[in-house]
Amino acid sequence: MDDVIITHQLTRKYGKQFSVNGLHLKVPKGSIYGFLGPNGAGKTTTIRMLTGLIRPDMGEIHMFGQAFPKHRISILQRIGALVESPSYYGHLSGRQNLKLICTLLNIPQKKITEVLQIVRLLPYADKAVKKYSLGMKQRLAIASALIREPDLLILDEPTNGLDPAGIEEIRGLMLNLVKEKEMTILLSSHILSEVEAVVSHVGIINQGSLLFQGTIGELRSLSQQHLLVEVAFPDAAYHSLTDKGYPVVLHGTTLQIPIKHENEQREIFHLLEDYQIRQVKIESHSLEQIFLDMTGRGSSV
After folding, report:
1. What architecture does CATH give domain 3-217?
2. pLDDT digits (tens, 9 = 90+) for 167-189
3. Band of residue 301 on the pLDDT scale cut at 50, 70, 90
4. If you average pLDDT over residues 95-113, what whole number do you get?
């Protein structure tokens, strides 16, 4: 699978503060790449560099095998982007707003009906945008990004502020675009659970640095089971396990021990026989918890 986007040591500072620090992104062709991180992590700054809105202080960007911004015009002609909150003329209809965009970009207006159909706004095409719901406005924004028939679609927080039904609509739209139009999609979000169902690849950024990059399956493999064992003599039980090399966290009378396989579980129970086991639970961390832990927003427990 070829990479549509490759960055090397991509860096951007504001004053003395790094907004993006030495970023190495690889976005495979045909993927839905979830670019995840808390607000202020550097996602939008990265997207603004990828779309030529700002220049990096250091580093390289290659898209479609070409250096950017050296081949800026030919690259941008293959990209559709929704960056931050787009503005529209509220008194004009969705169709009229798209006509203005076509005029500005010198694009034939014949595509307007097709993109409105793709985002399921055709029945509301002649309705004033000020009467659109937030979800409809987001879909209109995606329609404007699709108007030039891009190979790469870049969406900055496309589900932000949407209700569950609106989020599901955007998810379905992205899946259809990849399947039917063979697009590559880079979308940013600060909530993993909102995009987990659709992304094939993930990059997690915090404080400008990339903490993880890989497939969603590779991220799921980081989910590790923990054994929670409540005992009558926790201090002695704790030392019994740590003496054997087990990484144990003690919460009151409960021992938290990561386990990799059943043999470990049997050995742990054997070591704890003399400490009066009261209760046993097995806990698995969700992907959301892994994400929160990586970005420093998880609980300390």
Report:
1. 3-Layer(aba) Sandwich (3.40)
2. 898 899 999 999 988 999 999 99
3. very low
4. 92
Q: What is 225-284's CATH topology?
A: Alpha-Beta Plaits (3.30.70)
Amino acid at site 29: K
* Side chain identity at residue 140, one-letter code: L
Annotated domain spans of the chain: 3-217, 225-284
pTM: 0.80
